[in-house]
Amino acid sequence: MTVPDPHRLLVPVDDSVTVRNTVAYAIDQAETLRRDGDAPVELHFVVVPGTRAVDPDAPEELGAATDLLDRVAVWTDEDFGGDPPEGLSVTLEVVGADRYLFSPGDYADVLLEYAADRDIGRAILDPEYNPGGAAPMLRPLEIELARNGLEVEEAPVEREARQTVLARAATLPKYLSVFAASYLFYLLLSPWKPLDFFTGAITATLVSALLAPIAFSKQPSITRVPVQLVRMTIYVPYLLWQIALANLHIAKVVLHPSLPIDPTVVRYRAAVWGDAPVTTLANSITLTPGTLTISVSDRAFNVHSLTDNSRDDLEAGGLERAVRFVFYGREAAAIASPGERDDCEEVTYDG
Amino acid sequence: MSADDQPGLYVESTIIMTTVRVVSPFVLTFALFVMFHGADSPGGGFQGGVIAGATVMMLAFAYGIETTREWVDVRVIAALASGGVLTFAAIGLGAIALGGNFLQYNEYLFIYEEASKYGIELVELGIGAIVASVAIGLFLLAAGYGHVVDGEGGEA
Amino acid sequence: MVEFETALLAVAGAFVVFAVVALYRVFAGPTTFDRIIAVNVVGTNTVIAIALVAGAFDQSVFLDIALVYALLNFLLSIAFSKFTVERGGVL
Amino acid sequence: MTPLEWAIVALAAVGAFFGGVAAVGIVRLPDIYTRAHAASKSDTLGAVLALAAVALAIQTDLSTIKAVFLLLFMFLTNPTAAHAIARAAEDQGIRPWAAENREGDP
Q1: Residue of D39, B62, D45 lying closest to A246 (CA atoms)
Q2: Cβ(A271)–Cβ(A301) under 8 Å?
Q3: Taking chain C, what is the end-to-end CA distance rounded to the nearest angstrom?
């Protein structure tokens, strides 16, 4: 066995959200190496297919692997602006398809074998690399690879996260309402000794000073909030009734011997706006018949429904109407149902 | 680097944020309640401090670590921790100054008939401040592993 | 009077049994998400069991513990959703 | 037993039933999203009923309020927790189980 060559790069790829950036980074690194030194640079993109590659559905797994490599090939063409330059070669390969892989150690073995065969001295890892699916892979894999003399590097690709403002401008109504809520809560908890009124005041002051800028997204309005609270008390019994129905439904489905479920995901554009209504509606949906809010972006809810008739309930829009009633009043409740508005569509996950 | 398409943008969940926003004032109130009622219920400074720390962690998980780091000033954390130690030391050593043992609360009885109780509460509050600030500090430190720490937060 | 408290304790015991049943999912997985949702159920059942014991023995201090446990349970879930989603990102 | 105590025991028993449904659902249902249904709905109702029983049962002055707070807290946070986990699963690209692959999955 010859000495591992740091001019030969191993890049295990997987269908992750950062794979494109990792490929770009690896190509960037290879380019730098080629320009700086005179040694030929080799870039190896390898796919390790999932654990069931020798199973009956192996063709599918291998198909996904070669698909990914095709995409990587397109990306390399893109980044090099055509074929790779002189002195730099790109290899695309599927490895380890002939065996069962369970632990990160197994993946490391496959990669190390490949690296040893070709005298590869350096590996670039995608921070989101996780071909096994469930178990966290990256850290153990890094350690395994490094222990066997490979120079390991994590591609510095960060997943961008849109941050939300935490503290907003705090105003007197905000401070007062947080103070009042906190003080009331404290007194309800405490045994009403004289000291409690004093410590409660300290507590409420501290809490409102710290959290008043956070607790509200909008300015609380003296006139609107009580009305909404009253409407909320009308809404709660309705919601409880729906929850009771939901649970009988779930109990029937879950305890039925044949488990009659037909889950689908529905993308549902609800006619509610603002944090509080959206959250109320989303959690209400989660609590009621056979539906579960998976994600919310802008106004679109991704709702997972367990059975057919729960989907119909969602389209009938009873809950949405109720939430609109709570937050916007009675006139707002009387709008077309999501089914009539054509605001529900089934999400299909293709292959 | 020529990657045009960024990895899927991660947006914090409205649902989680709103729930945390509504719940957090009550949780912090409860934390302080536990701190003040250490003498006659399970709880006290340590538990209350941990719950207070958990409030900040909850905000961090809902709104993102970086946002919370900006909100929580390192100096506030440092002030809380040292203030807690100072309170604890002052009450404890004050008793010695009055001729008793360390933290012997009944030495304070001459001030006010329930002074020993207030002494205990103050000490609990001090312990709570220490625990909360250490919990938050450790959390932010652990969450920031691998990030460049900018500014001069080192002396905290 | 004795009967009623025993009944509450029995229900608490039932919730503990359900928690143990849910532990099967923690063990079996297959994904981390399945485990966490099962841990969440175990936590909820624990909170209920503590509360029921508090009701049976008329010990309000147990309710404080249940409250803290419920808080930690919630914290676990949202912390987990963060930790898996943002590898290479904010955490 | 007094009628009140009967009511308490009945509430707790129905709560236990739904707690049991949640546990069975967690074990029987095929994928993370369907399991989240069981965890969010049945367990929340089980918790609410059982805690309502506790609120009625407990005698000490203000402890009833504490139990009610616990109930509200669970009511608010349980669906959010289920949402958080389901959202993380979706973000990580876990596909929902569909009725077509009933044979293939355990």
Answers
A1: D45
A2: no
A3: 53
Give the three-class secondary structure for A152: strand
Q: Which of C29, C30, C88 sits opposite A159 (nearest CB)?
A: C88
In terms of Cα–Cα distance, which of A336, A342, A267 is closest to A297?
A: A267
Q: Which residues of B touch C82 (CB under 8 A)?
A: 61
| ipTM rounded to 2 decimals | 0.74
Confidence of residue D76 (pLDDT cuts 50, 70, 90): confident
Instruction: Tell me whether residues A159 and C86 touch, CB distance under 8 A.
Output: yes
**For residue A294, what is the DSSP state?**
E
Q: Which chains touch D (3 or more CB pairs under 8 A)?
A: A, B, C
How many domains would you assign to chain D?
Answer: 1
- For residue B44 the two structure tokens come to 């006290």
Q: Does the structure show a pLDDT above 80 at D23?
A: yes
- Residue D39 placed within a domain: yes
- Look-up: residue for tokens 């349980």? D78
Residues of chain A with pLDDT below 50 are: 1, 53, 134, 350-351
Helix axes A318-328, A224-255, angle to 10 degrees: 160
> Are the beta carbons of B12 and A164 separated by less than 8 Å?
yes
State the pLDDT at residue B150. 43
Determine contact: C90 vs chain A, CB below 8 A: yes
Domains of chain A: 5-154 (3.40.50.620), 172-215 (no CATH), 224-347 (3.30.70)
Q: Where in chain C are the domains? A: 2-85
| C89 lies within 8 A of chain A by CB | yes
**φ and ψ of A15, to 5 deg:** -75, 75
